[in-house]
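Suppose a classmate hands you a notebook page containing two proteins, each written out with its sequence and a corresponding row of structure tokens. How would you begin to make sense of it? This section walks through that situation. The first entry is reproduced here exactly as it would appear on such a page.
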Amino acid sequence: MNDGSGGIGGVNRGRLFLGSCVALVATSVAFATVGAVMFDLKGEFVLANAQVGWIGGAALWGFAVSQVVFAPLCDTLGMRFLVRMAFVGHLAGALIMVFAGGFTLLFAGALVIAMANGLVEAACNPLVASLYPEDKTVRLNRFHVWFPGGIVIGGLAAFGLDSAGIESWQIKIALILVPTAAYGFLLLGQRFPVTEGVRSGVSMGEMFRAALTTPLMLLMLLCMAITASIELGPNRWVPAVLEAGGMAGILVLVYVNGIMAVMRYWAGPVVRRLSPTGILLVSAVLSGAGLFWLSMGGSLTSIFASATVFAVGVCYFWPTMLGFVSERIPRSGALGLGLMGTVGMAVVGLVTSPLMGHVADEAGHEALDNDRTYVALLDASAVLRSEAEELPGPEGDGRRAALVLIADVLPPVGEDPTLLPVGTAKALRAIVESGSTSETVERARGILGPADNLGGLVSFRYLVPLSGVLVLVFGLLYVRERRSGGYRAERLS
């Protein structure tokens, strides 16, 4: 029996591993559904790409907040306590988003969900390492099958709802509650083992020294920021970007993550043949090539082909980075794993995702035909004003809101008709969502969609040089490893 006193005897190892996988499904369903509704939120609440980027980003950097706070306390509080907090966070965050009425609550709900996601990783990564100390990299890859696996489940569920004519984004967000209830049933009443560090007698001070002063650890934290940006930044934006181009973006996201799930499940032979360092090197090459190809757009066939290369490139990044740190710097313990997740998600949420939104806004505006857009806004203004006068009640609110945004970007009569960036896209989006049935809505959609699509693809291209940095770093580590006799995992006594 183990109730926190040491060892792993007496715990139901199979149920704990299964429950951890289902908890990870909850985090990835959250990732998929928030990604799937970003296009809807942009329209319903008339948000700029940058605002949507902040919502998507909060769903990432909130993960980092809970990791940095609770990962160091995992040894003290226990993994079961963190899982219970995650359960409450998933419930509360989903409900906040479902009942949100604007940007602020959407942002807050996404943040709470992300903090719950971080708690799952803060508890379950060291849990898996503790349950399977002899096979950590392979088992962490098997565990992390269920992040892309959950994205497949959530993405297909969201697409199925759309196909059935159920377009409510609130129902899609509520899908998070299903795996949440399942992992609560599997885990909340179970006994948990202690972490590997506690079992081996590693003190808190030793753990902090290993995590914060080891040069290899510091290098891997930097690389984690880059690998996470390459994997999660585009994954967050794929549905919205491709939907703007008239494609089923959520299906491309499902396809990418389906490949990732299958390849992670069969990670064992790959790890044994290439070693973790070799896997990271190959992944850096393929991810850069796939992302560059994907950023070129093109036909549906080209999109799926480039997405295949991208998926193969990024599939092993996250779990192999964690496995590498756990095997090569084992004294960093739960803190080391938590810091890796913290840095990865914090950089994606606070830097990569908002930056991609900003790049998309700027590049999309530059792609607009200024004269055509100016005329479309003038025509829409006249139509919406007439309709708003005929609909003085709530039915005309969408028209009036669109008129306000149009007035903000149209220059005064007689002045240079140059349209303002960002605001112009919001004005066009407001026209599309105004509720009008006039042809001006289709004209606005026809102008906005290609610009949003092109801007998003350009934002993908901005990340490609990061893959070159990874090729250099992982290449040097691989060469050094080969010269020293091959990869060797360290074990705590």
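The notebook's second entry, a different protein, reads as follows.
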Amino acid sequence: MAKNKPLQIAKPFVKWAGGKGQLLNEIRKKYPAELGGRISKYAEPFIGGGAVLFDVLNNFEISEVYISDINRELIHTYLTIRDNVDGLIQQLSDYESVYLPASTENRKATYYEKREQFNRLKKGNEFPLEIAALFIFLNRTCFNGLYRVNAKGGFNVPQGSYKNPCICDVENLLAVSQKLQNIIIMCGDYKKASDFIDNKTFAYFDPPYRPLSPTASFTAYAQDGFCDIAQVELASFIDDMSSRGAYIVASNSDPKNIDEQDNFFDILYAAHKISRIQASRAINSNGAKRGKVNELLIVNG
């Protein structure tokens, strides 16, 4: 495998529900053997926090990269880091200098003022730098780093209780900006990746997970959810991309954590190789239910 010797290691700049940082060692085992050689392109159409993206960029020579997501504010933040990281660092530094020294009461007031400002700005058609700065600020100071919206599209996560949150990670933002140069960054449905993916492409799909129970859904990072019909459509798209010769890895929840008889994904991806790996459930309203669960890694066969 042809590997880079990066000047700086880039890592996700936001916390993200379902982020893949803890599973990277297992996911790496599924990378194509020819990554950085014949497999010279990378696509990630549900980019989220980008743990797998940055692992690939830190370690392999990739000629073309495509990332996308339907979350407009997330994608705007990626674009801002790529194209105006200095301005973003200045804005975040200003937020940090006000928030960190403040009293608990003033921190709370600042958080909810920023949340209201973010929701007001995101209703518009323009995307100023401030949206990206607020996106990162709220992610770093909200409860568990969740991104959740209500039926009207308003970000509604309450303040977290972090004593010393890192709001402006200058070194990492610069490293991320460096890695994002010349990358195609799109806001939209995963199907748009069809124009990019070919037989030289490693594509990683990390969609909103199928909920393990009716009350366990964290898919509301956009106003539209990701139901079973959407999971079936995604599997069909993966089959189509596989038929082009692309190398594909996909992640999802394992329904058998709750119901051993639930073969939804085993049937849906019967033509491919399915591995079950252990992951820590980091986000659950019931502390007693946090712990190890199985997740699925699907590799096209």
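A careful reader of the second entry would note: Residues 1-6, 216-223 have pLDDT under 50 and may be disordered.
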